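To the team - zinc ion complex, inputs and output below.
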Amino acid sequence: MEWSEFHRNKWKQATTFAWKNFTNPLVRRMFSFVTVLGKAALPKEKLQELSELVQDMKTTYSTAKICKYDSTQRRLPNGDYDYYADFDAEDNEIGCVPTLSLEPEVTQIMARSRDPEELRYVWRAWREAAGKPLRHKYIRFVQLANEAARLNGFEDAGAYWRSDYETDDLHKELQELWDVLRPLYEHLHAYVRKKLREKYGEKVVPRSGPIPAHLLGNMWAQTWTHTQDLTIPYPGRTSVDVTASLLRQGYMPLHMFRLAEEFFTSLGLDPMPLGFWQKSLIVKPTDREVVCHASAWDFCNGIDYRIKQCTRVTTEDLITIHHEMGHIQYDIQYRNQPFIFRDGANPGFHEAVGDVLALSASTPHHLQSIGLLENVDDSYETDINFLFTMALDKIAFLPFGYLVDLWRWEVFSGKTGELSLNRRWWELRLSLQGVSPPLPRDEDDFDPGAKFHIPANVPYIRYFISFIVQFQFHAELCKAAGHVGPLHHCDIYRSHKAGTLLRNVLSLGKSRPWTEALLILTSGKTSKLDVKPILEYFAPLIAWLKSQNRGEFVGWRVSEAIVQPVR
Ligand SMILES: CC(=O)N[C@@H](CC(=O)O)C(=O)NC[C@H](CC1(C(=O)N[C@@H](Cc2ccc(O)cc2)C(=O)O)CCCC1)C(=O)O
Ligand SMILES: [Zn+2]
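Output:
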């Protein structure tokens, strides 16, 4: 019998019970989950079509390649970049063989190149190869995803996704959080824009307009850590980029994984099981194409857990290893729960676990204690440098983490129709993130499709929530560890008290609403998402940025964009 047939029969059985009147809260909670069948509620042939569509889009994305940039071919007589040279009428690159993959080649160019023309070319070529081809498939996908959601009693796929958070108005709650955090983002944005303008000039980077998206060191401008050579407040002082140390000390990916594991066990949490080390894939294979986007896998048998990551020996990948291992640790902590409760209290919690430990592991003193940094001084400048690099990751990300699903929820609800998919994407990118495209975009383009989570159909609001809640976790674990002093100096390494508190929350899985898990985490203080800890963590940097930005235009005028997005 088809898995979905089996599922459907079980589902029908469960829905015959008047489970909403059951007195036992746990049993009622179990039924509330098991009666949601998800996409298996679709008729067989539509389920087949939906699965094939997502697989096709993931394959297109994961195998997309672009050509090397060659500056000689793309000039107008006046020397300006010729947007439209070298791409044929279907926007395929001409006169070259596409050989560069997103990881690691294209990611490295976006991180390292300081040539705006090369960056613009690579930014565009990636979207031609990975985004544009998905547009029609995505439109059909939305129809099927909405049909499946309606068969489960939701008005559309966005409502189905938001139901994971068990709250009436998730969007409103998140908007309130963003309204409080937005000024902090605008100050970071203003300072980074000034430093980029000093490097590239006013013709490339506007004084009071949005920042062109190709100059921020990342294909989606979602984290800005790779601009730090241009933006670090006090150059020459201690920087927490330990890539050079890792390479000099002969670190290989396996050592980096062992290092992360040791942080977890130092808290009294579980080591990775034997099978993890035998079955994980931690370096990009040379004999076949794999989906290099890092991922953590729970095989639901209490012993088989794996990470797939095309690991490079860099600081960024060391952080990612902590992130992925955080998923595995959570999977392990709730493995004794009934199957239906083996999930994060909400998806944002699952994304936060690894990042919480990385907040401690990234501190200059921790890196020095494990030999990856030396002569760390306690000067004000080093403190600001450290907070600034953390902000390039954690603060820069907030509007992007918010807008991806704002866009998707509107597409699912029909508020954004299929004739304005790209225009709406750029409206959100301009208004929330203050970034603009390096060349005009139109409705033939499909720029959201050039971001993994859209073709892969992985929800994204979980990351916005994680970046807030991980600082709540950090604050409470630091208190449990007996930390005194500024929150950004805290390192919970080796604290079994912190580890026990974390385990008490993680072992619940999804057996209790996440609001109750927060009450346990905060010893009864709060059951809501709270931006106070992230604001406390970055307080010294906020003061510093405000003093630096005196005289700067803080925020951005969309009208001042170097390139107006829709031609
Ligand atoms: C079977 C399965 O799918 N498992 C899930 C996990 C689970 O549900 O158990 C899973 O492995 N998802 C993959 C995804 C990978 C990454 C990602 O996509 N990150 C976001 C956002 C972000 C950005 C900066 C940052 O510091 C943290 C996050 C992006 O890169 O845009 C890439 C590197 C980091 C995390 C992940 O681990 O979340
Ligand atoms: Zn994750």
